[in-house]
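Structure request: Cupin domain-containing protein, Sporosarcina thermotolerans.
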Amino acid sequence: MSKKDVDFKDPKLIYAFDLAQSRFFTKNDSNYINVLGSEQMKTLGDTLLLDVFLSAENGVEPHYHFNASEVIYCISGETIVSMINPTTKELKAYRIRPQQAVNIPQGWWHYFTANADNTHVLTIYDTHKLETVWGSDILRLTPPQEFANAYCLDERQIQQVLAPIKDTVIIGPPKDCNKNKEDNTSKAQTIPPSYPSYHPTYYPARYPYMPYYGR
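Returned structure:
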């Protein structure tokens, strides 16, 4: 909703709002998202905010917004923001701490994960109605045979691997996740490679699965 559509003579209009009263998604008491948009405050115009709270190793799943660009601003804690540049076919990752931000261009595939407990980030969008395609929906709604045929994969293995994804995840891993603890311990003991810093005031992500880090 643009500001020109708002009747500022309306005595019912509000100019202040408590995001704690507007929940977008809840995983548990430590991982949840609040929202502020024109539905909550008509005077806001073409802007939408998601107030994201995460504990360590939790994150917002891979997704993209086809109608908005996004700024991710770190308020507390630490998070790694990753995105794929669809033009260069490169994966970029940025470790951000308080007062640092990352911009996600419209339509880019991205995700972010908390590196510390009590991580708090604010995501800001240039639209009043955010449209999102979640990775979990792509995985659970696309028939396994389509993945198998398109990428020459074993359909039975795909079906088995994707079977636990029953709903839209948003904050992962899902609260009913039963990954083997021994496997997690093994991963934690792996010494990750180092990557050059994208900018001297930022901190390079150091995960083994990241094949590329920006220069």
